[in-house]
Amino acid sequence: MNKFQPFSFRNMDEFRENLPDTEQQIFNFLRQLIDESFPHYTEKLAYNVPFYYGHTRICFIWPPSVPWGNAGIKGVQLGFCNGYLMQDELNYLSKGARKQVYWREYSSLDEIDPDIVKAYLHEAYLLDESLAKSKKSGI
């Protein structure tokens, strides 16, 4: 528990069980797309929501029923931790006032285009691989 959230999930099952039905459906679908897009990753709760790691944090799924301060989230967010480094030629991602993390918010399953989401997830995964190689080579 922290000053921004009045509760803390112990594991992913507890997190999922506490989501309202619509959010749970969107979460499950986005999670499936992540699983199909990343050859290997680690999933763990951070800030009380699931984050997906390769060499670094790649992305997260943040439902509005898990509050954080006054974020004002209305739909389930798929956030990209290094979104500012991604190509966003479709202007698909929201940037808000954030400098690094970009996201897309979904209020229903109908709003999710799996092909577009998979393309962005694939790019985020390749970016993570590239950042890891640059760090190893000292670039």
What is the succession of H and E elements? HHEEEEEH
Flag low-confidence runs. none
Strand composition percent: 15-25%
What's the total number of strands? 5
CATH class: Alpha Beta
- Calculate the terminal CA-CA distance, rounded to whole Å: 38 Å
CATH architecture: Alpha-Beta Complex
Number of helices: 3
The level of helicity is 25-40%
In which order are the strands of the major sheet placed? 1-2-3-4-5
In short, what is this structure?
This protein is an alpha+beta fold. 34% of the residues lie in helices and 19% in strands. The chain is built from three helices and five strands, in the order H-H-E-E-E-E-E-H.
Structure, described:
The relative contact order is 0.17. Helices cover 34% and strands 19% of the residues. Strand 2 (49-53) and strand 3 (57-62) form a beta hairpin. The chain has a five-stranded antiparallel beta sheet with strand order 1-2-3-4-5. It is an alpha+beta fold. The chain has helices spanning 12-17, 21-37, 114-137, and strands at residues 42-46, 49-53, 57-62, 76-80, 102-106. It has one domain (12-132): Aspartate Aminotransferase, domain 1. The mean pLDDT is 90.
Ordered list of secondary-structure elements with their pairings:
Elements: H1 12-17, H2 21-37, E1 42-46, E2 49-53, E3 57-62, E4 76-80, E5 102-106, H3 114-137
Antiparallel strand pairs: 1-2, 2-3, 3-4, 4-5
What are the main properties of this structure?
Aspartate Aminotransferase, domain 1, alpha+beta, 5-stranded antiparallel sheet, globular, about 140 residues, 3 helices
